[in-house]
Amino acid sequence: MKLQIVDCYQTLSRQAAAIVAGLIRRKRQAVLGLATGGTPMGLYQELIRLHREEQLDFVDVTTFNLDEYVGLTPDDPNSYRSFMQQHLFSQINIRAERTYIPCGDASDLSLVCRRYEELIRQAGGIDLQILGIGANGHIGFNEPGADPGEGTRVVRLAAHTRQANARFFARPTEVPHQAVTMGIRTIMQNSRKILLLASGEAKAEALYRMVCGKVENGLPASYLQLHPNVTVLADRAAAKLLADVGQPLGC
Ligand code: F6R
Q1: 251 pLDDT higher than 60
Q2: E strand intervals along the chain
Q3: How far is the CA of 104 from the centre of ligand 1 (A)?
């Protein structure tokens, strides 16, 4: 695992965008794995800026999102499809048919999950997977206790995760109880490179255990220690428990 510590969220977002943009400029048909939530929002803003001001071209890019809530229609304002539309897709020149997100309101979710795995395989895997990390150590919605051998499937969200994500909903009770998520196996087997972003003190303990702790399903992100090409980009607050932090890059 390569660990890069930066001073603040703004630098983290810019660095992450530079990595994504570098890939797209080298490989027009890049396949990206994308995350939702608060952490990648700065990355998406910076990608939009690079598209507008520096002609970063998404026309041949394909994306696969990690997860979607069960029971929300794609046009529900709280769905991850809506999140991606609002924060990235509607503001760049990506083709809608190349943006994949599991459909959380389909009648046959196990078919959705099987197809999602197949679509990722057909795309030739994922060149760069962006991940956030839950304060409980989840990646995607693979909560503590997840079986690392599982692929895309329906999962129950941990109470902790529903609480953390309640900030995006009008009322905490509206947060769905289930989600479709890529599995740890999906992420580990299909991603040629992984970029995990962590910002803020709330992530410090999970990040420390992910980097320095033992590999265990109590902290799903720890399985990333077994992947050959992972870069962790963390701000100072998230990295505060990591002893060997080196010289943070300034804002
Ligand atoms: C979202 C996802 C989650 C988040 C994690 C951190 O698609 O897969 O694993 O990355 O919950 O969320 P934030 O960034 O909101 O702290």
Answers
A1: no
A2: 2-6, 31-34, 62-65, 67-69, 99-100, 126-131, 153-156, 178-181, 191-198, 230-235
A3: 17
